Amino acid sequence: MSNNMKDGGPAFPLVGQVGVEHFACEPGMALRDWFAGQALTAIIAKVPTKAFRTDATLYRRVGVAAFYYADAMLAARGEQHGD
User: What are the sequence ranges of the domains in the chain?
Assistant: First the structure.
């Protein structure tokens, strides 16, 4: 995981402190991955279970769609923050 702002940076970093210096102990997952996971649950909730059994490409398409939502959320977040 990087601190790349294209992936939103870390979602849940654990920060330690030594004296007055702060440092990342564990960078956590990318915010983009977190957003995709949140979108994924909503998408899966709307797809009938039997659709997954009858369409071998559905798993991949649902995963791709989740990242489209994540990218849109990062773009909206960037617009709000003036990025």
Answer: 30-83
